[in-house]
Amino acid sequence: MHEELIWQCYSQNELESIQLVKNRIKSLSVPFVIYLEGQIGAGKTFFCQQIARINDEKNLTSSSFLNLNIYLGKCKIIHVDYYYNNEPNEFFYENIFEEMDDNTILLSEWSPEYLDLGIKQYILQIIEEHNMRKINFYSL
Asked: Residue-wise pLDDT tens for the chain (140 aa)?
């Protein structure tokens, strides 16, 4: 799949990151997938939590040890973390694919590959630079 940079910006703190999500991510039409990329501690789960909050889900937690959490609210939010998963494709098709519908946001951390799912897909890349976070947002 071809990546196209949609926007790029810098965030100096949590408040700027929250505003970034409110201003840039809130306008995306459901259903969609966001693959979150960045080093450990870069803020992937924080961004997932903020995306969930703008969709009225306030209890999203890290799914690192569970691999998957599903939240039902204004829309269905599926949060998956592949960090400890050795069989990502099998896990996706056995546990996630059937859960997706036209009212789903899939937030995927540490995804080893991008799948052709027939819905809008994006990459939110977080790079730590000089006590700031450089945020790149791509369309697939």
From this structure: 789 999 999 999 999 999 999 999 999 999 999 999 999 999 999 999 999 999 999 988 876 656 889 999 899 999 999 888 878 788 898 989 999 999 999 999 999 889 889 999 999 999 999 889 999 999 99
For residue 101, what is the DSSP state?
A: -
Which amino acid makes up residue 127? I
Q: What is the pTM of this model?
A: 0.92
Cα-atom radius of gyration of the chain, to the nearest Å?
14
Q: Where are the beta strands (DSSP E) in the chain?
A: 4-11, 32-37, 68-72, 76-81, 104-109, 120-129, 132-139
CA distance 73 to 58: 10
